[in-house]
Amino acid sequence: MVTAVVAAELSTAAFAAFTLSKSILLFVAAFFEFGIFFPGARLTALADSTAERRRWLGALLLAYVPLGVMFSATMAAVSLVVDSIFTVEAGTALLITAPLSIAYPFGLVALAISQGIGRPYLQPLMTLAAAGLTLVGLWMILDVTNHDLNLTLVLALRAVSLLLAAALLAYLIRPIFSQLRTRWRRIWSETRRWGLQAYAGRLLSVGTYNTDVLILGAFADSRQLAAYGLTVAGASLIRLPAIGLGTALYGRMTRSGALDRRAFAPVVVWGVLATLVAAIAAGPIVDQLNPDLSEVRSLIIPLGLAATAAGVTSILNAYLNARAAGRALRNTSLILLGANVLLNPALIIPFGALGAAFASLLAVLANLAGYIYYARRISRSPYTIEQPRSSTNE
Question: From CA 40, how far away is CA 326, in angstroms rounded?
Answer without folding.
Answer: 14
